[in-house]
Fold:
Amino acid sequence: MKHPENDSQYTGLTVNSGVAQPPVVNPYLNRRPKRKQLPSTPELVEGILRGDVTMLSRAVTLVESLSDSHQAIAQEVIEKCLPHSGNSRRIGITGVPGAGKSTSIDVFGLHVLRQGGKLAVLAIDPSSERTKGSILGDKTRMEKLAVHPDAFIRPSPSAGSLGGVARKTRETIVLCEAAGYNNIFVETVGVGQSETAVHSMVDFFLLIQLAGTGDELQGIKRGIMEMADGIVINKADGDNIDRARLAQAQFRSALHLFPPTTSGWKPEVLTYSGYYELGIPEIWEMIDRYFEYVKSNGYFEQKRQQQARYWMYETIDSRLRSHFYRNPKIEGMLAEAEQKVLANQLSSFIAARNVLDSYFNDINPEKR
Ligand code: GDP
Structure:
């Protein structure tokens, strides 16, 4: 290197060229492995089949994700898990807030786990989207199950419509079953539409009721009662026992007025106390009887097939909708058409036809 101090007359140390000043920004930054790298599809599938809870949780997170790339992985994982699913009792549990769902599920869950196997508790709570806080989301509501090694508790997926939320739960059931969970509880708030969604994915539908309001039968929607395979009246303890028995009698006679169920099963009405753990084995004996009954008359299989068909059409439906509504051109057209309809310049039907025509024309111009 050319430098005055490198001159032959200079007797001191030589000066080396040194190294270039490093850039201010670390160029390796992006190449560092991300802390939470996504496992590959085979890793997820293998982990789930091994019963690895971390892998199961991560796959469920992918199922719930709105990102297209996550969805693609999730669908692949589900497909691989599907042949290992189906081997469980799927039980829907509903009741209005305060009916004692969390207390009861904690107790029911422990009862079931004492017989062996594993339990997954999932939830469908459409309110979680609106309120940004899920009524059913809090794991700590089920204190004992939350720390049980054989229980997997997952709060309601929060994003999207009820249909979307329910579909995600339906897919999560597949993953849980593949991971060896042979008892699945799907919890929902007994206040509306979500029961129908839960009913479409469970084998047994349990309705938790309360006594003591005097007009028990008026508060519940007839539709929910019609779906129930079992009605259980909670808080039958202390001086509430008599009222619970009265409510039991009222529900029993109300059920007589309903048309017979497709399964041939006669829904039963029992009383219990989740808090004091009274009457719990009787509830599970009823559920055992139900499974024996529907498995022997073929209804169990038939219902699962119906449900599988329902979810196929439901998925097609939702994919078509989102393809339509997420089309940028359609979004613009819809906004404009809506204005015209509101201003009475265009009828709803013509507006709808115009938008749809444009959509179909775009996706298949030759055929039109
Ligand atoms: P959820 O909103 O349906 O999940 O209901 P929770 O399980 O949170 O219960 C609501 C309230 O009812 C809580 O204060 C519970 O302690 C109480 N509770 C639940 N089960 C029973 C029961 O069997 N007997 C009595 N007396 N109270 C109960």
In short: The chain has 15 helices and seven strands. The chain has a mean pLDDT of 87. Residues 299-325 form the longest helix (27 residues).
